Fold:
Amino acid sequence: MNFIASLFILLLSLANVDAQTFRAGTAMKDITPDHLIPISGGLGAPVMPEGFKGKLSVRAFVLEKGATRIAIVSVDNIGWPAYLGDRSRNLIKGIAPENVLIGATHAHSCPEPYGMDDEKGNNRADPKYVSWCVTQIASAVNEAVAKLEPASLKTVVAEAKGKIAYNFYAPKLNDPRLGVIQAIATSGKNAGMPIVTLVNYATHPEILGKASKLISPDLCGPLYDRIETKVGGMAIFMNGAEGGMVTADNRLENDKEANDWNECIRIGTLMADEALLLTEPIPVQENPDIYCTSKVITFPISSEKMRYVLNHSPLAAEARKNSDFSAIQTRINLLNIGKVQVVTIPGEALPNIGYYIKRKMKSTQPFLFGLTNDAFGYILTKEDFDSFERYSYITRTSLGEMTGGIFEEEAIKLINENPGPAE
Structure:
């Protein structure tokens, strides 16, 4: 064999090795508006804020191995419906649209993307701002792809300690498990340093809420700052099954609450410290495998309130061309990332649904990405739907009583029909 042939075989071998190397990349874009925009904590009337506290951001985490490439995106917003996410997917290069997961932090002090009416029937949406966010999401993902580099992985799921979250409706019914995915650079000047630290935890970031009249990322801002200051890289928060009502534990004595920025710092910092504490002793997974699949499912819409929003929002005009909103389709994803398995939830699933899905997953490190790919209000079972007074609000702000059962059935099918991660 001559020298040129030997060199060609060597280069081909090296290219094949590189193609099968786990790589990760990140990018962050600021989406803080340059002017005051109405904020909304849900289906209630939006209010006009009076200032800003912290910066809103889009954070993209791209993973690649072989022919598989996945984007996990977190948007500081109360929700991000698919009809907006799909506009970003159309601008993203090099990733299959079904492999782009866009989740909302669910911070209640952000400009809302639904175009809901105020108390006088006026629509307070800002289409220019929303369109800018659409392009910022795509730009973040495209930049993260360009920054892909070889990486290893640390992952963990364990109970987070401290006063972080509780269930306002049933104080002990929430999932205290916190999940972390940390990609670590394996070459270059930053070898051994985190590229990204993803925190998955179920809670409402609503310490400030719309009553504060501040545009803010709420506790997510201090969470990001703490992780990035302590270990470097980029931090990203993906919510979990926080419906009904798993919220920040900002309770004080005498039935009062701490609803200020200092409390955002306390809880965001505590969550960040718990994530890093849990992750630090975990062994590194070298060149982990990744896997991504998805399916489209259909939910009937029996809620007149939800149908009204979809039929009247100026931001949903494109979606209305293909639907009368008697039912709506959405996509759910299943991911394997090293030892982790992830299932996405297109809304706010109640904790009992979250516990059930996690129990059925093929991993000792189950993650749920709530409010991802869509944000269709609360997802509860027919047994809980409109059955007692405490759940009257979440009943009104759900698609209908069949949503929880359909989601459970379809998610478990997806789990059973696909491989689990390597343990």
In short: The two ends are 42 Å apart (CA to CA). The longest helix spans residues 127-146. The mean pLDDT is 92.
